[in-house]
Amino acid sequence: MEESKGAKSTKVIEDEEKWVYDSSLDHKGNVPLRASTGVWKASLFVVAIEFSERLSYFGIASSLIIYLTRVMHDDLKTAAKSVNHWSGVTTLIPLFGGFVADAYLGRFKTVLFSSIIYLMGLILLCMSWFVPSFRPCNTKTCHEPRKIHEVVFFVAIYLISIGTGGHKPALESFGADQFDDDHREERKQKMSFFNWWSFGLCCGLLLGVTVVVYVQDHVSWGVADIVVTAVMAVSLSIFIIGRRNYRYRKPTGSPLTPMLQVLVAAIAKRNQPHPSDPAQLYETPKSEKVHGRLLCHTKKLRFLDKAAIISAQNLAENPSPWRLATVTKVEEMKLVLNLIPIWLATLPFGMCVAQSTTFFIKQGATMNREVANGFVVPPASIFALAAIGMIASVTIYEKLLVPILRRTTGNERGINILQRIGIGMIFSIATMVAAALVEKKRLGFVKSDPIKGSHSMSVLWLAPQFLIVGFGDGFTLVGLQEYFYDQVPDSMRSLGIAFYLSVIGAGNFVSSFVITAVDHITDNGGKSWFGKDLNSSRLDRFYWLLACVAAANLCVYVFVARRYSYKNVQKVAVADCFGDELENEGPIP
Questions:
Q1: Residue 571 has pLDDT above 80, yes or no
Q2: What is the SS3 string spanning 56-116?
Q3: What are 146-167's pLDDT values in tens digits?
Q4: What domain range includes position 237?
């Protein structure tokens, strides 16, 4: 008997080593063979297309305000608002793209279709420069661009926004899907995947704001558009070639339906008393096959628990999910509701980050950009310092701080996710203070020598604010990415990445609104803080305002974060959760 059990156990282990049983499928719709699918042989294709997308995006985004003021001849205020609107749309559309990926199309198809739309936008961007009837002007010196050029240009960049909307939330989740969380070795490799993901992203960003921007500044905007279009086309082809190596997951249907079911069931049972023992709440029986992980009961938002109360009517009939929900579904609803205060409390951070691709870049354009042997740095290339700051931040955090903090706190992450985000917010305040001081000094140069202006001031004066914002991003942006991926229900991974992106998108819209409001208030007070150009503006005062807002918001964030309950996943059995409702961070991968 014992030998029979041992042989059966060995066979199960061998079977699990050969096949992947985590709900994944291969390209033919069968259970994937572990040796020929997933892990690095698949995820490197994903990293490659992320590299090219970031190169294209930052090549366009970092110099967009320069294009709008130089080629479109927009004033500073109009150009800044246009950039904020575009950036806002680009980072909010992923909410729709993530929903479609999780509910209907699946992640691979979403990445494929959105990348094609992205490529169409890049091709149209090339046409806006090379097709004679779409060009800004027929003459070399262009004082006012044609209306048709403005229309084609904005249609092109908003097509890129739509493409990003599906690409960003689905691609990273698809890459993580290539690793089996239930397999020890693959689980370790999954942590390395996120490091390589960030490496590919930062490399694409660095090349976008250096090589691509240099071509824009010293060759032509059209040639730069051809470069990013070619890179995107090649990487899309590489992504498609890797199709046989991928592990796929079927879309699970709308993630909103289960949450609506919980709400309806809770309202229907609003008069039911809470059971004295949470173990009496309904959960999927162990004998039934469960897709995804089960969650433990928590004490917050107890009204929703009524959806899992087993009533006499539920016992008498086969209950509908609209009348009886599992504890896991109730807890997933709580997870989503708990995200809202954190999301709102991070918006001022998004507003501060928005300045790095608008006013910070425009500041650089007015300063002395000659750094060595007559080499002139393109204004948008200064953004490379932010990428360097972020790479340094992530490296120092991972290699130096985490080992020390693990020994000090006993937490496998070193510090919890929300603490990491909060530290980055402190850096965003420091960024605005540094930017205000530098802008005040720049305006002093302009006042002392109106003819030469700030051209006698080195662009390297901007290095502190870019490095600080990049260093802070290594804490807050990476923390937000991890937070929204980890703390959403398992069926909403793509939407989780979209929630993270929406912080930056909404921050851009809030920034645009604040610019409009401050412009109106200060204009009525005598002189607007936002003039025709930087030299007639008072950006230093605007930066001080943002620093004060960010500091006040940090207090709100700390208050909210201290009361947050992390996802608590069942590790052994349903009964083991109850009576042990720790507000931990959930499982460490």
A1: no
A2: HHHHHHCCHHHHHHHCCCCCHHHHHHHHHHHHHHHHHCHHHHHHHHHHHHCHHHHHHHHHH
A3: 788 888 888 999 999 999 888 8
A4: 16-253
